[in-house]
Amino acid sequence: MFKHLMPKQTPPLLPIALVGEAILGQTAITVHHFDAELAHLAEQMSASMEAAKGVGIAAPQVHSPLALFIMASRPNERYPDAPNMAPVVVVNPQIIHASSDLVGGEEGCLSVPGQRFNILRHQAIEVRYQNLQGEWQQAELTGFIARIFQHEFDHLQGITLLERSRMPEQAQLISAQSIEQGEAQ
Ligand SMILES: [Zn+2]
């Protein structure tokens, strides 16, 4: 078992599921219980994401089947150009509107170590989700943050970067004029 020496307050790190593991191919299940156990899972996910220098992490990536992810964009070694945002816990997310314009950008994934993919994502999205208290939130996201949301949302549908990069609409990327400067999760 892999062990890490961590400061006392940090919850134990969760092992990250790697591409090919069944959990990453499954549709996540709706969260109904907004309890201490859910908050604890979010805390552990957050610590595991930070330790791995991610800017987002979805529950299936830590072997949980729940429809939950964390977005936490900030510059680090893996994403030096990432914008700063306070971490957001996203439960039972829905994309209620997506802009027709797609933008290309580089993405990596904690479950696909050492690889980067150019992926087309909607430039802007309107989303709904619940917070850890179960309260519904609505937000409009653009650019890098919208990209993280779409990447993590994919995980909850059982889609990793490998499947996404092979989808027909991604072929447009080859003829795309410009690649977005910022990298993504
Ligand atoms: Zn990922």
From TrEMBL:
Gene (UniProt): def
Cofactor(s) this protein requires: Fe(2+)
One Pfam family of this chain: Pep_deformylase
InterPro entries given in the database record: Peptide_deformylase, Peptide_deformylase_sf
Catalytic residue list: 152
Protein name: Peptide deformylase
Functional note: Removes the formyl group from the N-terminal Met of newly synthesized proteins. Requires at least a dipeptide for an efficient rate of reaction. N-terminal L-methionine is a prerequisite for activity but the enzyme has broad specificity at other positions.
Keywords: Hydrolase, Iron, Metal-binding, Protein biosynthesis
Catalytic activity: N-terminal N-formyl-L-methionyl-[peptide] + H2O = N-terminal L-methionyl-[peptide] + formate
Cofactor note: Binds 1 Fe(2+) ion.
The species this protein was found in: Shewanella baltica (strain OS155 / ATCC BAA-1091)
Family of this protein: Belongs to the polypeptide deformylase family.
GO molecular function: metal ion binding; peptide deformylase activity
